[in-house]
Amino acid sequence: TILVTSGDGTLTSYDPRKGKVVTMCEPMESELLSIAIAKNTNIAVCGSSSGALEMFKWGVFGVPCDRFVGHPESIDTLATVDQDTLCSGSMDGLVRVLSIQPNKCIGVLGEHQGAVTCVQKSPNTDRVMSCGDDGCLRVWDLNDDSKEEEPTSSANPPGEGDHDGDDDDDDDDDDDDDDSDSDELPAKRSNKRKKKKQRQRVETAQSQNAAKRSKAEKQFFDGL
Prior knowledge:
about 220 residues, about 20% helix
């Protein structure tokens, strides 16, 4: 069986021996851009332009059996790591490690300056290769303990959800008092800096992608 995703939002299964279509799902609301297999070939996972992962039971490709949302932009490429784990490459430039059923983002391997166009797991090592619109081929180690947490867009506005009125999510005082500096652990400070840096990188990549789309749209309409 050959599975094909399409920009019309369908997943189609072909029987190459008989040369015919076996099943085609009803068109989804979003384009289906990528596909990978998980759970010992029991689940086909499709990445969509909306940032959701649509999951189909093997042999029952007409209707999705599960849905995993969380990517802020389109999922342009997927790769199988093992029966429970995938890697995704997204328009936001991030390469993520995902758990499938239970559905969870395990962490972020790294990023490109621009969309990620392809990810692939090495068959003989615990490494993942990725390439993107920045023209770079990058190699990531799945055993690297420095994988960063998924940036979140649900951070509380200043003064809401924390008591110090700053831009972070904790309740500590970020002033220059000696007592706050002495009580805050170095590991905690390092973690805060890492999260802040990652948020800045994501915002930069998103701004660059928006500028590219705006330029492409202008060129298209200028040519009409």
